[in-house]
Design brief:
about 550 residues; mainly alpha; two-stranded antiparallel ribbon; 23 helices
Length: about 550
């Protein structure tokens, strides 16, 4: 009963505060619903970015990878800060200059309506079939593992519990996204983000105490330093989950797309009141991201220290380690609070992705293709109807993901299929003026095709299932992703030589947003990059290469 009461109290507090702060907002126009009236502040942008990124895929997946592989998986939290700096200094000024609400809108301005249509369809298919179901499935699984939902509900059938959790989470997330609009999503993200950071840090603290025993948390940290000295290396060996050299190929490209061109993430930055505010929010997010390993990697190392050589936990899969750690170390009085925090993280990712899907459909399909003379009310209504259909599809698919050998690996493989083609086209669009639109369309189609073949055509996978065999040798998946990216960029540059645009593209300022940069943006960005290098240097041991 205590668990249920604390869960309901925190969940109700977030819902009540969100309603109080946003119920008077403009939800009737496309700019008000999809871009929060372009008035998001820096703190809300940073908080929303952080929690949209942080969900059960990270809590469970990344800590599971740390349990299996050690400290080097912090690459997904630390090196990603460089991609966030790129967003603040390079991508965001160009998006806000165009005054767009979606990435496909920018691509239409640069390459034409066909490019926008292809990109929109790729985004929508990926969100409906992969991203949204994955968020729901991993969220439902995490809740079941952490808090023994079967015992709490009295339902013994695991499949029934999974379906029930998926649909409850999906319906609540849909209400946030489809009735409140982007600002409601962003505000609830920020409130839940505060709770998740506190909860994640508490798990780390209590875990260290459990390792240290009477010596406390510091003794626990010393025990990990001593007991896992060979695993506390920021440099991934060639047989590790993220080999060091892949940081410079596909791994960093995936980070760059995610933080710089992924509609689900960047939509709140496009809603900034001006460039200065947007840059402050993005760079603040980058600064907080440097703390990510404390609650997204260290708990995995703590779990390894507690469980790896303990016969009681023999046979435990890495993906189960975080849930097991929560059950073992979290005081009973905080369990309901942490359950609410985890639900908040799941809802944040779900409703953010769903809000982005409705934005892409309404502004990329409905208004330009189906009803060119639609009123503002009709545009918003179309997004809400599409959102409900997409949510139902996602809630139906999510339970079917049960049984995947590696959910985190499956998500990475599926993400790359649309991440890389879109990123290549956006980068070429921003850096060149004469590359023709037809080449961007070809690159999008070929890129998706190459990555589908590389990930799913059974022409040869190594014994571990992580590498693609090409030309008689072994190529890591991340290197293959990098090769596809370079090939697509080369294709578009060659097209420029063969048949360039008749007139160079002029990037006009839409005047919708003040694009005066923050005067400290560049120094702050440089400071963050230096921090990344220092953190890596402190934990680096290159002898593993």
């Amino acid at each position: 009963m205590t668990i249920l009461i604390s869960f309901l109290l925190f969940t109700g507090l977030v819902a009540g505060l969100t309603w109080a702060l946003t119920h008077k907002d403009d939800h009737g126009t496309s700019e008000g619903f999809f871009l929060a009236g372009r008035k998001l502040g820096a703190v809300v942008i940073a908080g929303s970015l952080l929690l949209t990124n942080l969900s059960t895929e990270q809590l469970v997946g990344l800590n599971g990878d740390a349990y299996a592989g050690g400290l080097h998986v912090m690459v997904w939290e630390i090196v990603t800060v460089i991609a966030i700096v790129l967003m603040a200094l390079f991508f965001l000024p160009r998006f806000l200059r165009s005054g767009v609400a979606t990435v496909p809108q920018f691509l239409e301005d640069r390459f034409g309506p066909t490019t926008r249509a292809i990109t929109t369809l790729v985004f929508l298919a990926a969100y409906a079939v992969v991203l949204l179901p994955m968020i729901l499935y991993t969220g439902a699984q995490a809740l079941s593992e952490m808090f023994d939902v079967q015992a709490l509900t009295g339902i013994q059938n695991k499949n029934v519990v999974l379906w029930l959790a998926v649909w409850i989470i999906g319906l609540i997330g849909s209400v946030y996204a489809l009735f409140g609009g982007l600002r409601t999503v962003a505000v609830s993200d920020t409130l839940n983000g505060a709770g998740l950071l506190i909860g994640g840090l508490l798990i780390t603290y209590f875990g260290l105490q459990a390792v240290g025993g009477d010596g406390g948390a510091m003794a626990g940290l010393d025990a990990i330093r001593t007991g896992q000295a060979d695993r506390l290396n920021s440099i991934g060996a060639r047989d590790d989950l993220v080999p060091f050299e892949t940081i410079f190929t596909g791994a960093f490209l995936l980070m760059t797309f995610y933080w710089c061109t992924n509609q689900q993430i960047i939509q709140r930055t496009l809603a900034a009141r001006d460039l200065k505010t947007g840059q402050k929010g993005v760079l603040l997010c980058g600064a907080v991201k440097l703390l990510g390993p404390i609650y997204l990697v260290l708990p995995g190392l703590i779990a390894y220290q507690l469980f790896a050589n303990n016969p009681v936990h023999e046979g435990m899969a890495p993906a189960e380690s975080y849930g097991r750690l929560v059950r073992e170390v979290l005081p009973a009085g905080l369990t309901g609070f942490f359950a609410a925090v985890v639900v908040g993280a799941i809802l944040s990712s779900f409703n953010s992705a769903l809000n982005s899907a409705t934005t892409l459909f309404s502004l990329g399909i409905y208004q330009p293709q189906i009803n060119k003379h639609a009123t503002e009310k009709q545009v918003v209504a179309s997004g809400k109807w599409f959102g409900w259909v997409t949510a139902v599809v996602a809630m139906t698919i999510a339970p079917l993901l049960a049984g995947q050998e590696s959910i985190f690996g499956f998500l990475q493989a599926m993400n790359a299929i649309y991440f890389i083609p879109i990123l290549s086209v956006v980068v070429i669009g921003m850096l060149t003026k004469r590359v023709p639109g037809w080449s961007a369309n070809v690159a999008l189609v070929l890129g998706v095709g190459f990555l589908l073949i590389g990930n799913f055509l059974p022409i040869g996978t190594n014994d571990q299932g992580g590498d693609l065999l090409l030309a008689g040798g072994v190529m890591h998946n991340f290197h293959y992703v990098g090769l596809v990216f370079v090939s697509l960029v080369a294709l578009m540059l060659v097209a420029r030589l063969i048949k360039p645009r008749p007139e160079p593209w002029a990037h006009e300022h839409s005047k919708q947003v003040d694009i005066t940069p923050w005067k400290f943006a560049v120094p702050a960005g440089i400071a963050l990059v230096i921090a990344v290098i220092v953190i890596y240097a402190v934990f680096a041991d290159f002898t593993v290469l």
